[in-house]
Amino acid sequence: MNGALRVATLLLNEPTRTHKQPLVAAIEASRAMEWLVAYMTAGGLRELEQDLTASLKGGASVRIAVGLDEAVTEPQALRILHRLARRHPTLQVYAAAEQTKTFHFKVYAFQNQEGSEVVVGSANMTRPGLIENHEASVHLMHPGREFFDRISRHFDMLVEDKTLQELTEPLIDQYAERYEAYRLARHLSKHRARAASEESGRMAQLKEVLAIMSADRTQHGFDHQRKLRRSGRQAAVRQIELLATSKETSHATFLASYEALLDGFHSGGLHRGKTTIAKHRAEFRQAMRVALTLAKKSPSEAFEILAKRCSSIRSAGINVITEVLHAINPRKFAVMNQNSVAGIRIGHPNLFPAHPSKSSVSPNSYALFCAHAERARSSLGLADFGELDAVFNYAYHHLG
To answer: Among 16, 80, 191, 268, which has the highest number of CB atoms less than 10 A from its own CB?
Structure first.
């Protein structure tokens, strides 16, 4: 670099100063400009149009290149530029041709009596970009022509290799048709995104998860998990009955039975609390005796009764309580753990706690959780909540 950099300042869109002010000042002081921007809107262009027009009337030489990728640039902005170019021969306007590489510039270069100025950063020539959005750019000032000439040479190269083509009325008309198609597609996409947060959208997402899981022929696939959960539930019921009917047992004997019970469950991390629960083995066996009487109770009643029995048993949390209830009646009682809550929270982000615990889940909230789980189970055509929990687990662990 031949000359020293005179100054570099940071531009931010702030209440008292935005990108617009330094750009306007540079336009007023410049005799030549080279602008390359990815997106342009009529609103953004109008913020600079008056000063740009005055500069052109004063004989400034200006080249502007605009990207058409993703059809974000507004046709009206192109028409305004085209009209300006017809009135002022020193203005040349180009559009980036469709290609594999994205035209992603946000560069505003100026040449004046003091040297070169370049504003480069994140701000497109849109009103939000210049004034409203959270944007950041660097304003570079150099006493020589090197900055400006470097950008001019690159601009020339883009014209020569036909990355840039001269903006014409037929090109604008052709692009306007594509813009309208994209605009409609974006509108529909936003509509689908809103719908995805509603019940029907949530079910559509879960159906996609089920379809992917059903096509999975590994041990994680739906067929394998359905069989695994059915056999696991049957084994869990046998262990619940064994624990409920056993007399006073040693720590080691209880621990072996409890570990066998956990082998039939599918909530993660349950083994971490087994030693603590073994210290309360008498209370836990009594809770299992009560659990066997709850199969015909409502979800709120069953949860309230069993949760009360487990209230003094540390590590017998919501996942243990609901796994036991589910084993007893998989069509009525859903497993409530972090994975299943994540599945239900699709579309209902504030309805249930992300990490359910005894302090955050009441009998009524568990009943509501089961009601939402039942709608999901019925919509997906699943046999019971065990199959639904398998879908939730698959989404959580394999599609997250």
So the answer is: 80
